[in-house]
Specification:
Strand order of the largest sheet: 4-7-6-5-1-8
Helix content: 25-40%
Number of strands: 8
Subcellular location: Nucleus
Function: Specifically binds 5-hydroxymethylcytosine (5hmC), suggesting that it acts as a specific reader of 5hmC.
Protein name: Thymocyte nuclear protein 1
CATH class of one domain: Alpha Beta
CATH topology of one domain: ph1033 like fold
GO cellular component, one term: nucleus
Number of helices: 7
Keywords: Nucleus, Phosphoprotein
CATH architecture of one domain: Roll
Structural class: alpha+beta
Length: about 240
């Protein structure tokens, strides 16, 4: 551990460039009991021409069969710019991940029950987008993979850590983390504004990003993605920025 609590305190801060999100320092507030009782199951899930061309390609690859909706990819938010939380800098950029031994680190500090449940659902080998959040221009910068499945987050027991939880017990830990490893940078930075343009278009014509949690639950720091959502966003790296 190069330094403690370098991801999120209670999850994602609303992105500065996201007009539909309220600027806040925590994820959506819900009582612990209410959140803990919620199911971990995710909800069902910039031009129309871009979506149609992508759809034709995918239908050709699959013989026209529609894939079942499953959540096997993820989006992980982390702050690339310095911000002190109880005196500790929670900054952690993609460059910080690449600087870790074996380019691997634990994803600690998640303190939202739904985000925690998503962490617990992750499987070894699954890929995730590394998303720079709460910064001048938020967006996707890289791809990482899960290399260790959920286990107790040690920061919940560290009284010096900003994410210390006095109500959590070692015999029954409340909070979990996973280990992630750098895979590669995306071929280009994919900004939130571009993803949102496609999301709005897909809401109108039924494209794969119509229910993307990045816009329906903006403040969650851990978000699931369907195969279609992941593939479509990944296809944007091949396009010239608008």
């Amino acid at each position: 551990m190069p330094w403690p609590s370098r991801k999120r305190d209670k999850g994602a801060v609303a992105d500065k460039k996201e007009p539909d999100a309220k600027i806040a320092k925590t994820e959506e507030e819900t009582s612990d009991k209410e959140e803990e009782e919620k199911s971990a199951k995710p909800p069902a899930g910039s031009s129309k021409s871009g979506w149609k061309n992508w759809k034709k390609t995918k239908e050709s690859e699959s013989g026209g069969e529609e894939s079942k909706i499953t959540y096997c990819h993820w989006l992980l938010k982390s702050e690339p710019e310095s911000r002190l939380e109880k005196g500790v800098d929670v900054k952690f950029s993609i460059d910080d991940l690449k600087a870790q031994p074996n380019q691997t680190t634990c994803w600690d500090g998640v303190r939202n029950y739904q985000a925690r449940n998503f962490l617990r659902a992750m499987k070894i080998g699954q890929q995730a987008f590394f998303y720079h959040s709460n910064c001048k221009e938020p967006g996707i910068v890289a791809i990482v993979k899960i290399v260790k499945e959920a286990y107790p987050d040690h920061t919940q027991f560290d009284q010096k850590d900003p994410h210390y939880d006095s109500t959590s017990r070692k015999e029954n830990p409340k909070w979990s983390m996973v280990d992630v490893q750098f895979v590669r940078m995306t071929k280009r930075f994919i900004p939130l504004s571009e993803i949102k343009a496609h999301h709005l278009a897909h809401k109108a014509d039924g494209g794969p990003l119509k229910d993307m949690m990045l816009f329906t639950r903006q403040r969650l720091s851990i978000q699931p993605l369907t195969q279609e959502e992941f593939d479509f966003v990944l296809s944007l790296e091949e396009e010239k920025p608008h």
